[in-house]
Amino acid sequence: MNLNYLMPTRIIMGENCLFNERSLLAQLGKKACMITGKHSARACGGYDDAVKALEANGQQYVLYDGVMNNPTDNCVFEAGELAGKEGCDFILAIGGGSPMDAAKAAAVLAAHMLSKEELFALSFDKVLPIAAVPTTAGTGSETTPYSILVDTAGPAKRSIGSPLLFPRFAFLDHRYLRRLGRDTTVHTAMDALSHAVEGILSPRANCISDTLARETIAIIRNCFGPLMDFPADPAEFPAEIRKKLLLASSMAGMVISQTGTTVNHSMGYQLTINWGTDHGRATGLLLGPFLRWCREKERADSSIKPRIPGLCAALGMDLEDFCAVLENLLGKRERASEAELGAWGKIKMKNAVNTYIEPCQEEIADIFRKASGGGRNGAE
To answer: Considering the entire predicted model, what is its pTM?
Structure first.
C-alpha cells in the first residue's frame, strides 16, 4: 500500500482557546494582519478575543475587514498589499470560509509581487504563516491547503492549492458559533457533510481519509435531529451540537485536504456564482441527485467498485432516506430555467476528473436538471 498523508495544522479546541493558548501566536511574529469580514468577527467575539491575545503578547496588528461572501481576486490583492505595506509577519484569519480563503491568498501576496495569473498558476514559494479562527462549522478551511476565490474577469470560481497554505494553527471555539441562525448552521453543516461524502467518492481516497470521512459523517448524522428542530432563538441551539459540528467541519477539511472534492462541488459553484446561493446549500441541493446517479452507474457497470453501500453504512440509512433528510433540512429548492440548465450543462466541470466515476456532459446536465426538479421557465 502506498500512502502519502500530510496534515501540518495544529488544532487547538476549547472555550477561550485563542487567549489561553496565545503563546502560539507569539511564535509567528511581532505583527499580525487580521483578516475578517465587515461584521461577523466582531459580532461573535472572535475579534475581541484576538485583540486581547495579541495585546497580552505585546504583538502589534492591523485589520483588513473588507472580505465579502465569496471573496474576489481584487479583495485578496488589497489585503495582501496592506499586510506587505505594514510589515506584517503573519496572518490571523477570523471568520467563515470566505475570510479564511482570502487570508491564505493574502498570505501569498504579502510575500510576493505577483500578477493575478501568477497567483492562480501557483508561482510562489513562500507565504506568511497563517493562524485561523473559524466562526462557522462548514468549510473546514482551517485544515485545508486551498483558497477558493472569485475571478472577477469571469466571473468564475477558481482555486489555488499548495501545502504552503495550510494554516499553522487552528483555534476552534464553539462560542463563536452561538449566534448563528438556522440557515447558516444548516448550510454550513451541509458543506462539511458534502466534503466528507465527496472524499469517499474521490479516486484519491485512501484508508486514512476514508476513516476520517466516515467518522465525520457519523458526527453530522447524529446532529440531523437537532438541526431539523432548530429553535427560534439560536442561543437555545445546544452548545454540544455546535461543538460537534465545529469538530466535524475541521475533520472534513482534513479529508478534502487529501482527496479534493468531486464534480458535486464544481456544479455547486454555478448556483453560487449565478444566484448567490450559499455554498453549503448549493452542494446540499445537488448531493442527492449526484449520489443517485452514482448508484445507477454502479448498478449498471459491474466493473465499478461500489462505494455507495459503504457510504450508506456510514450514514446509517439507505440512500432514499438520506435524500429525504436533505429535503427536510434544505426546504423548498430553487428552480432553474431551461436556459440556465442548458448553459450549465455545457460547462466543463473542473472536478469531474476527481470523481471515481467521471460524468460526461450529458450526465452533468441531467444531474442539474434533477436537482432543479426538472427545470422551470424561471428561477423561483
So the answer is: 0.94
